[in-house]
Specification:
It contains ten helices and 15 strands. The protein is of the alpha/beta class. It folds into two domains: about 140 residues, NAD(P)-binding Rossmann-like Domain (Rossmann fold, 3-Layer(aba) Sandwich); about 180 residues, 2-Layer Sandwich (Dihydrodipicolinate Reductase, domain 2). The strands form two sheets. Strands 14-13-12-11-7-10-9-8-15 form a nine-stranded mixed sheet. Strands 3-2-1-4-5-6 form a six-stranded parallel sheet, with helices on both faces. A hairpin with a 7-residue loop joins strand 12 and strand 13. The longest helix is centred in the C-terminal third of the chain and has 19 residues.
């Protein structure tokens, strides 16, 4: 039975506590938070879990095998480092840290200690996201042209990071997973209206190898919750609507016909349509399941088996590399920036 300490019982923390405290492969030994009201709620719901205000209490407990961190991004580096130095396995919510240098440091520390370091990029564990990955691996869409990703909602508004670090981190992790690559360069612009210096909306374009473009629109200042992705390939196109529970994926048998089948001269709308194939729409069945539960189970399995996690420290660092480049581009008025670090 894996003994887990959860640090952070705020917005996302209770979901993590509920998933790890299953008494099958894992149970939560400690919940840490500096808000007494949150700890009181935890004790009412889970009277067998110990609580404390200081992270050192859980990190220093010899009975604790793993630490799960769900605190503000600015606190990730010192907490993860302390846990790894204490010999604990660590799962930390995204992003892994707020800088490439500190992320690299944690990756090296985990590898030296022989401990699992996993980042909570939960959408990679979404069954629909994994089904799209299967389509791409099977070359069902043909050569990928571009991906358009929209992630908006009204709140929650952060004060420690901007909307790119909070929201685009999800989409970068998905794009990297789907394309088996990191972006080469990025360009982005953003606007800060609520809190000076913290962009509430960011529009970014990421250039991946093989001339694949990924465009992202993220905002926590939008009247409608939207998680919509479009993939345009050479042979087929695909849409993924994460807000649709029953039919999240649609595959469109649509393409611009090869040059040999196009009319010699397009002189009307009717003849232009002749060069475009508009076929059937397929709606594949996607297995139901809770992504967070799959993510938590994956972490436990990796700790018990010694296998590398799907969203390990290196994958988490790759996301931070792209986020840093987006921040540089926004600061420089949208100038295209190389992804380095």
């Amino acid at each position: 039975m894996l003994k887990v300490g959860v640090i952070g019982a705020g917005h996302w923390g209770p979901n993590l506590i509920n998933n790890f405290h299953n008494h099958q492969k894992s149970e939560v030994a400690w919940v840490i938070d500096r808000d007494p009201a949150r700890l009181e709620r935890v004790q009412l719901r889970f009277p067998d879990i110990k609580v404390d205000a200081e992270a050192e209490t859980a990190i220093g407990d010899a009975d604790v095998d793993a630490v799960v961190i769900a605190t503000p991004t600015s606190t990730h580096h010192p907490l993860v480092r302390a846990a790894l130095e204490a010999g604990k396995h660590v799962m930390v919510e995204k992003p892994i840290t707020d800088a490439v240098d500190t992320a690299n440091e944690l990756v090296a520390l985990a590898e030296k200690a022989g401990r699992v370091l996993m980042v909570g990029h939960v959408f990679v564990y979404n069954a629909a996201v994994q089904r799209v990955k299967q389509y791409l691996d099977d070359d069902a869409l043909g050569r990928m042209y571009y991906i358009s990703m929209v992630r908006t909602n009204l709140g929650p508004i952060r004060v420690d990071v901007n909307s790119a670090w909070d929201l685009a981190s999800h989409d970068i992790s998905i794009a990297n997973y789907w394309l088996d690559a990191e972006p080469v360069s990025v360009s982005g612009i953003g606007g800060a209206w609520i809190n000076p210096g913290i962009e509430d909306a960011v529009f970014a374009t990421l250039r991946y190898p093989n001339d694949v473009l990924v465009n992202m629109h993220v905002s926590w200042l939008n009247p409608r919750k939207n998680r919509d992705i479009t993939l345009v390939g050479e042979r087929r196109m695909l849409t993924f609507d994460d807000m649709s529970i029953s039919e999240p994926i649609r595959v469109y048998d649509k393409q611009v016909a090869e040059q040999t089948t196009s009319p010699d001269f397009v002189d009307s709308f009717a003849s232009f349509r002749m060069s475009v194939r508009d076929g059937d729409i397929a709606i594949p069945k996607v297995a139901s399941g809770e992504p967070l539960r799959s993510e938590c189970e994956h972490f436990v399995d990796c700790v018990l088996s010694g296998n590398a996690p799907l969203t390990g420290g290196r994958e988490g660092t790759a996301v931070v590399r792209a986020l840093e480049a987006i921040s540089r581009s926004v600061a420089n008025g949208g100038r295209e920036e190389a992804v380095t670090g």
